[in-house]
Design brief:
Blueprint: E1 2-5, E2 11-13, E3 16-18, E4 22-28, E5 41-47, H1 55-154, H2 159-173, H3 176-192, H4 196-203, H5 209-219, H6 224-231, H7 235-248, H8 257-262, H9 266-270
Antiparallel strand pairs: 1-4, 2-3, 4-5
Length: 271
């Protein structure tokens, strides 16, 4: 009995022959007592490989390998995205902190500038108040001089001297110099208070010179008594002037007059 097939040899465990996978031919011959052999009889068969070596198993192995590579790629991609997001968040945080430092420095600089401006404004307001009091004192002196001259006139019999004194009173009563002083004061006032007088005239063309003066003194936050001295009128006259001014400018009763005047400036008017 002869077996032919692919290279390999028969193995057996517990007398059970095990053949490698492949195709085999099994030939059988019979020999009689005389030693004569019959023609061989051939039987062909195929031994299949185990399931883990089959083509389907290789396909599964390939699919598992592709899935593993895809998962590894996807995992690396997610890791990269996470790292990028974390890096961007850190950069945004650093930028935010840097911006906070810049804003803090700018705020400190602005505060310093505002303090400097406030000191300058306070100093200029002090100068304005001094100038205003000078105008008041000047007006009071002129009024006293005119009163004294009138008293002298009543006691004189010399007509020529009386006429000369009346001329002096007329000269003292001229308002040209006082108007120039007020114009100088208004120009200085506008430099400190952002062209307040100019803006007030543009916004309310019908406002009078005395009302402009009253608005300027009110914006300086002077007391009623101080304003009365500056304008050479009574305290009651100042209160009446405030009432008429509020009515003329159409300021609601619930609005503070000082706050309303503070909101007016050349910059605001231009906008």
């Amino acid at each position: 009995m002869i077996i032919t097939g692919q290279p390999g040899h028969l193995k057996g465990r517990k007398n059970i022959p095990i053949c490698p996978s492949g195709s085999y031919s099994f030939e059988v011959k019979v020999r009689n007592n005389l030693g004569n052999e019959s023609a061989p009889s051939v039987y062909k068969f195929t031994v299949l490989p185990p399931w883990y070596l089959s083509i389907w198993a290789y396909i599964i192995y390939l699919l598992l390998l592709i899935s593993g590579l895809y998962y590894l790629y996807h995992w690396q991609s997610r890791k990269f995205v996470t790292q990028r997001v974390r890096h961007e968040e850190e950069q945004r945080k650093l930028q935010y902190l840097h911006q906070l430092e810049i804003d803090k420095a700018e705020n400190e600089l602005i505060n310093l500038r505002n303090e400097k401006l406030q000191v300058e404004i306070d100093f200029k307001n002090s100068e304005l108040a001094t100038t205003a009091m000078h105008l008041v004192q000047k007006g009071e002196i002129l009024t006293k001089i005119k009163s004294d001259i009138n008293s002298i006139i009543r006691g004189l019999d010399n007509e020529k001297a009386v006429n000369e004194l009346k001329k002096m009173i007329k000269v003292l009563g001229e308002d040209d110099k006082m108007d120039k002083d007020w114009e100088h004061f208004a120009q200085h006032f506008d430099k400190v208070h952002s062209d307040f007088v100019v803006a007030l005239k543009d916004r309310f063309p019908t406002i009078t010179a005395n009302e402009l003066k009253l608005c300027a003194y009110l914006r300086m936050n002077l007391s009623t008594k101080e304003i009365a001295q500056l304008m050479n009128i009574s305290v009651r006259g100042v209160e009446i002037g405030r009432y008429r001014l509020r009515k003329k400018l159409a300021i609601p009763s619930e609005t503070n007059l000082f706050d309303f005047l503070i909101s007016i400036s050349g910059k605001t008017n231009q906008s």
